[in-house]
Amino acid sequence: MLATLDKGTARRNALDISESMARNGTALYGSTFQESVSLGFDTLTRHLPAALDLFADVVRNPLFPDDEFERERNRHSDNLSQGESNPQALTARLAPRLIFGTEHPYGLPVHGFFSTISGIGRPDIVHVYDHCWGPSQSAIVFAGDVTLNRAMELAHLYFGDWTGESLAEVALPFAVPAASGCVYLINRPNAPQTVVAQALPAPPRKTNDYYALRLVDSIYGGDFQSRLNRNLREEKGFTYGISSMLALMDKAGYWKAQTAIQTDRTGDTLYELRAELEALTGERPITESELEEARINRVRGYAQQFETIRRLAGIVGGLWSGGLPMSDIRDAVDRIERTTLEEVHAAAARYARPEQAIYLLVGDRDRILPQIEARGFGPVVMLDQEGRGKEV
Amino acid sequence: MTSDNAGEAIPQIAFEKIVLPNGLELILHVDRKLPVVHVNHWFHVGSKNEKPGRTGFAHLFEHLMFEGSQHAPGGYFKYVEQAGGNLREGGVNGTTSYDRTNYFATVPSGNLEYLLWLESDRIATLPEALTPENFENQRDVVRNERRQMLENQPYGRLLSLINEHLYPTGHPYSWPVIGSHEDLEAATIEDVTQFFRTYYTPNNLSLTIAGDFDPDRARQWVEQYYGDLPIGPLLERRVRWIPDLVEEKIVETPDTVPQARAHLIYPAPSRFEEDEYSLDVVASILADGLSSRLKKQLVYDRRICTEVSVFNIAHEIAGMFVVVATLRPGGSLPDVEGLVTEELSRLAVHGPTRSEVERVQTLWEYRFISGFERIGGFGGKADRLNEANVFKGDPGYYRQEFECFRKMTAQTVQTATEQWLDTCSRLLLRFYPDTQKSVAPATLDRTQIPVLGRDTRFETPSVQMGRLDNGL
Fold it and tell me: N or C: which end of chain B has fewer CB within 10 A?
């Protein structure tokens, strides 16, 4: 829907829209997330009214012409098959599916699957537009050389008489994770590296554990000095780097560490990943000095993320769509500083659960299988490019 | 006057440049938007300076610089993260190109002196602090970087194929920055010391400090921490060497990719030549936005490509102009190459319209100014000051670049297109989907000649016939 949105309005065709944006020194950029969609532009202040006029036309009056839809659908399906050939992208796309299950919306990749994209028709995207796009479910963020009065004046002018449906709450089913204890493998013959992901269920964004868990993640795999990166890169040299991240949505989340490992170290890496996860709540709990370093880094590095207006607008938009107060921007440093070792240990105990971890691999099956077995992992479940199980 | 933007004042980056007695060039730029300060080192050394048999060494060396120094043992990152360096925001890194190696970090304003101590310590003491274990570890890391970025990535071998086929043997751009596994294996810890003494010297360093700081204090600290670095040898600089392809060269390569991709690659001007800006404009006219010439024709009207991009990449002694077209399944690479070639010829013969040039100027002005939002990072102010200082000897050269874009006319664009792009002296690099769906091995032993296969009977096509009532 988003890709076709700017491909024609009552006043302008797709080429006019692109050309007019360029004449105002800008271009539209859009992103689709699990629970929100954003569309924006940035431009020199003197071009703002003209660019906003155009932007409002795109947001409010799209026609979704048949042939434009067709072209975008084809391009989208090409891009999806392109993504399947990139082992890192493929792993990132499929890990949530193993955590939430095949029927859960959080398990579906935001950009869909190659096999299902052809089933989407123009009426489907018109339906989404008609039922999801409207003023009561939207926010416009202005950042830069503009006052609130000026922003309100412009918003009234271009969006004041905008009407539209609001979205009904989506009922989410329970997550049905894939069996833990298995290793899920997508074959990539002759690959010089194996992409390895370790994924765990995680709480919703609004959890009280948020700051404690962020710090656990920093120490485990989030920072350069994290346990995982020091072990697998700085001590063993198996990889160019490993990092972990938290993806926390409104109702649930997941926690994932991902890396690309030289193929002959795949088994050793699985072993290390499991050992590091066990150590968090076992023989090497997070120490006060690790926590202090992680806190200091978060606090001292905080200001930097506000350097560009585009990034700032993105942070504000993320808080808004997550239903979080804008005061979080101000309070975050204080919350991080006040997080105690007990809270961090409690968060680790709740979420760093080795028995729930799922391992997803993309690499050369024939060279990996013996290593997995030798390290006592398994059984191995072979998956296809869309994460469906298949016969070995 | 070529556009309505011509009246706007050129944005300024106020700076001060100081040369220390040991040759170190210091550039100071104050920007108090956020309470942070950015320190950016450019050493004028890259893969271009490597010796045969040691490709990839400049980049491997860059990795070693993060392994800790005499008074900051155990790795640089430990210290910089404690000083507030934010890797998640891209605030700390090092990068190596053909021509230069840079190291940068952004920290809270109060930690400037600490950061200058940390940075200067590695420049003063690296070889003394480096252990064989660290050396071997980073060699393994770099070999994994090569596997990840080049060997296990769709179209990942593109740049190394360009090195091999666009540049003649002996040209310093004829090998990849990352190097070969063989050469990385051959590198020794003795190479490190020699490389360090030759290139990591104050007279080969341009140091920019940008952000919220007091310039007098900063200058004193730089004198204090960098002032006793010993002067290194005078270096001979390679001069402009644009490759000259006598005829069109076609390279075809299978890859584990679902879509064929065409690359039309033309030798182009080096960095800061006037024609560089003309070719930037051509790139934008061809592929910036849906209404650009190639996007409109190949993606929008004819629908034979999923994506078209054009890059004009200028390095210190040569550049390249690259058209990349990703084909829809079933499309023909030569057909797409033919259409691109026709468009380039049309531009060379008729030139762009005035409105095309103006559109690009407006877009470009926005991008230029938005780069000023950041003190650090790629294209941020410190990088811009350092780049112009290292290659041009004038940190403020961005003003001339700005003027050059403003003065651009349809005529200058046409002339540059005619000179550089309306030619068969080019490299066509074709990626096509490998039906075997496996990743090409990184190295192939070509001395192993396969035996001829067993003959199999040719199964001829079966012919079936029918007849219509009308006798057809």
Answer: C
pLDDT in tens, chain B (472 residues): 344 444 567 778 999 999 999 999 999 999 999 999 999 999 999 999 999 899 999 999 999 999 999 999 999 999 999 999 988 888 899 999 999 999 999 999 999 999 999 999 999 999 999 999 999 999 999 999 999 999 999 999 999 999 999 999 999 999 999 999 999 999 999 999 999 999 999 999 999 999 999 999 999 999 999 999 999 999 999 999 999 998 999 999 998 888 999 999 999 999 999 999 999 999 999 999 999 999 999 999 999 999 999 999 999 999 999 999 999 988 899 999 999 999 999 999 999 999 999 999 988 888 888 888 899 987 789 999 999 999 999 999 999 999 999 899 999 999 999 999 999 899 999 999 986 555 544 455 555 666 665 555 545 555 566 655 555 6
Q: Which residue of B has its CA nearest to A241?
A: B141
- Is B88's CB within 8 Å of A26's CB? no
pTM (two decimals): 0.90
Task: Check B439 against A189: CB less than 8 A apart.
Answer: yes
**Chain B partners within 8 Å of A233 (Cβ):** 141
Residue of B nearest to A76 (CA): B306
Cross-chain residue pair A238–B144, CB shorter than 8 Å: yes
Contacts of B290 in chain A (CB under 8 A): 14-15, 17-18
Distance (Å) from the C-alpha of residue A356 to the closest C-alpha of chain B? 27
* A224 contacts on B by Cβ (under 8 Å): 77, 81, 87
Start-to-end CA span in chain B (Å) = 71
